[in-house]
Specification:
alpha/beta; UDP-N-acetylmuramoyl-L-alanine:D-glutamate ligase; four-stranded mixed β-sheet; 10 helices
């Protein structure tokens, strides 16, 4: 079993072309739906009394929701953001923590022995607390973002020290270490404790640092991009989901995990919110994987 811990949100996303209000989003949502294509996945998080029943049903159809808490008094986490004309830069308009601000995480007894744990972008203190609830996972991967780096940097560092791998984007890595060179950032991430670090660079692909070596991988080419929201979380879910199928952790399995991460991220950005991600199947992933491999054949 893979257990994903993070936010389940109602997102308002604004682009120069379209706006969607209070659509299903959140780091755990994207990561768990993405991962469910590879492994039995459970989700741990909290939503409010305003969380639509249709969204709850959508999650129930894709993942195990026994770890989902529904507050009868508070509202669901809400994130409002805007993208630039080229969809490469995101600006936070408003963040309403709501039910996640004082969330004391618990997990069902059936989740305790989860072999794989993904700590999605979330409060690093909550991530470290929920990690204590598991017996002995084989693989733990975490993510973070600029909000936590700026406000709880020490806790972010402590969290990274407790995991086997970390996935974050280029600007976050540079912010964390106040460095301008992505390779330097990758080495510094590795020095904190994780066996590997993945730095995502959006349309420029991703960079893996493992066993003192760098492995760059281009992004899967997409012509129509509607909403970059959740691309990184979808990458992370597919990444650990693929690794859960492998017998060992090595450079080959990590490189293939990056390919699957980029593939699921490419699906996520083709529509608003989780609309595209929630409506793909194994054949869609396989076909895109085969086309992806052709890129490297010349």
């Amino acid at each position: 079993m893979l257990t994903v811990f993070g936010t389940i949100a109602l997102d308002t996303t604004r682009t120069p072309f379209h706006t969607v209000e209070r659509t299903l989003g959140g780091t755990a949502t994207f990561a768990s739906i993405s991962a469910s294509n590879y492994v039995f996945t459970s989700i741990v998080g909290i939503v409010g009394h305003d969380f639509p029943a249709s969204y709850l049903e959508l999650l129930k159809n894709r993942v195990d929701i026994r770890g989902l808490t529904i507050s009868q008094t508070g509202k669901t986490f809400h994130y409002d953001s805007s993208f630039s004309y080229d969809l490469s830069k995101r600006t936070t308009n408003n963040t309403e923590l709501n039910v996640i601000s004082n969330y004391q995480s618990t997990i069902p007894e059936e989740y305790v022995d989860s072999e794989y744990v993904y700590l999605a972008n979330n409060d690093p203190l909550q991530n470290m607390n929920v990690l204590k609830l598991f017996s002995k996972p084989k693989l733990i991967i975490c993510d973070t973002m600029d909000f936590w780096i700026m406000n709880r940097r020490d806790e972010v560092i402590k969290m990274i020290n407790k995991v086997d791998g970390i996935i974050l984007n280029e600007s976050e890595a540079k912010l964390l270490f106040k460095e301008s060179n992505i390779f330097t950032c990758a080495r510094l991430l590795g020095s904190i404790g994780p066996a590997f670090a993945v730095i995502n660079k959006g349309e420029n692909g991703s960079l893996l640092f493992y066993d003192n070596e760098f492995y760059p991988l281009p992004a899967y080419p997409i012509e129509i991009i509607r909403d970059p929201t959740g691309a990184g979380d979808s990458f992370g879910g597919a990444f650990i989901g693929y690794l859960s199928q492998q017998e060992k952790l090595d450079s080959k399995s990590l490189k293939n995990a990056m390919m699957h991460g980029n593939i699921m991220g490419s699906f996520a950005i083709e529509d608003y919110g989780i609309q595209k991600l929630a409506n793909i199947n194994a054949d869609d992933i396989k076909n895109r994987y085969e086309k992806y491999k052709e890129i490297f054949s010349f």
